[in-house]
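If you are new to this repository, start here. Below is one unmodified record pulled from the training split, so you can see the exact layout before writing a loader.
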Amino acid sequence: MTRPATTRLVMKFGGTSMGDLERIRRAARIVAAEAAGGKKIAVVVSAMAGKTNELVAWTDGAGRPAPSLASQGIEMSDDEYDVVVASGEQVTSGLLALTLRNMGLNARSWMGWQIPILTDDAHGRARIEDVPGEVLGAALDKGEIAVVPGFQGVTRDGRITTLGRGGSDTSAVAVAAALECACDIYTDVDGVYTTDPRIESRARRLEKVSYEEMLEMASLGAKVLQTRSVELAMAKQVPVRVLSSFIEPDENGRLPANAGTLICDEEEIVEKRIVSGVTMSRDEARITLLGLSDRVEAPADVFTRLAEANVNVDMIVQSQARSEGAVNLTFTTGRRDAQRAAELMRGAQGEIGFEELRVDEDVAKVSVVGVGMRSHAGVAQTMFRALADKGVKFQAISTSEIKISVLIDAAYAELAVRALHSAYGLEAV
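And here is the target side for that same chain:
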């Protein structure tokens, strides 16, 4: 789907870009440069870096007065929790609007309820249901720069909601979809790289990445974009560009050309790479049920219980146990869910039927991602040969059409990333 040509643009600035007044002034200069080029702009902003954590801590401190309950703060699902933590974005939207006005530009802040950004009522983790774009679009067409707080919305009965961590990216894409325009996301990196440059100095910035590749990268450990924002961009076909907020317009008030990385439809990428990137996640834990009963319904029993407890499971491996009539079942989950999953399994040990449970958090997941995998053989062979040459053993594997992930000892994670980056020639991208 090709979007209609438009001079509208959504720009999003993250918490680092809004970190203090000087950085807000820099963001304002970037916005002014786009406005001078004829763009009709809506800006979505995050709270100042660290501010949301401070606000969450305040809600934790607002515990019940009884001494025995003093440590119990406001639950994330409480609507008043959202009233407190949504205020950080309100501050930065007002400050940026003030700064733009002081530069002589016609700017105004818009709260989530004024647009409105309509969400469900799952406070603390709400999902956007609709963003009517008519009122905001009319303001832009009249020459107003609209500054919108990210991370927040409103229920249909008028209560403030928040979208969960990283929700400002999703806010920006949702507003861009409503306005039928592109979305530029300014952050503390200048684009999407073939891998983390802090691990591999030869990492290269990618000019274009498909929605599917970015979705896999985001879910596998790349922190550039929030997963839900990429899902929404793909569903609504919103072109998203990732750019550095640490740039300045030149003496003519122009921004650098061909900067950043464009996240777009696969069909817009002329030369499709076999592998586009290597990612790593340390937020992994391996749980093994030793001596699990070899009855047909046993795995279903395990994963049904985990699903009902909202524990996300990734890799799954089943192998023969030493005991006759038993198997060993291994699966991975995020570290935050590991203890909950382990307690759930121990509590149902008798009903599920297994001998021993082991939890290992000293693991990491390393993945290779690329749309070219669909049509090229030998990707897996290259991966496993590169790991074998470095003496890296893998404990579990998961695959999709465009990615291969392996679970390895955490101590070898960075070595594996560098080896795979070299094996696929990504330094030459």
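Two things worth knowing about this chain: The chain has 13 helices and 20 strands. Confidence is low (pLDDT under 50) at residues 1-5.
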